[in-house]
Amino acid sequence: MNLTEMRAIVRRDLHDEDSGSYRWTDDEIDRHIAHAVKDLSESVPDEQKATEPTTAGARGIDISDVTGRVMIEAVEYPVDQFPARYQRFAVWGNVLTLLGDDVPDGSDAYVYYGKLHTLDASTSTVPERLEDLVAVGAAGYAAIEWAQYAVNRVNVGGTGTPAELLRWGEGQLARFKAELRKAGRRHRVRVRSLYRPYVPPASKSTDYGP
Questions:
Q1: pLDDT at 160 (0 to 100)
Q2: Could you count the other beta carbons within 10 Å of the beta carbon of residue 36?
Q3: Strand order in the sheet with 108-115
């Protein structure tokens, strides 16, 4: 799904499909979509892997080229071993510092990270299963923005009054954020299971003795 298609879904949810008298401009709708995509990225970021050079004898790794990042999930060093060797690390600004026993020798490290999702006229990294959720969030933000703008302005009543639009928008956002929390929990379990220590689980039925 691209931005144009997402915008059409949001307008449909808002009952704002009369192109001759749009309540929200395309730029306004796009801004609310971007807000929802950013929220999604905080809970379920776009998963990426970067190959970063190290400096022999130095623990710091320059990650300034890892742009749009939301979080660093894991750092593998040395690379391409089995089982994979993941290092403890700390991040300050654009410097990632390895805290484990392995001091870099100038070879590459793998940085697994989450970044902001992209949704534009031609590209989308938003998972298909979460596209409708982005539309829910964008519609909620748009409804609340309009309701706040319309307070104390002349209106003709009916179902489009500011108070009703505000309640509807708040309901959409509550649903959006609740579903984001669920999606975020599922994401963390799935991703972090990749980095569990390679220790076989203790048997619950066999006692091998001391």
A1: 52
A2: 26
A3: 46-53, 108-115, 69-76
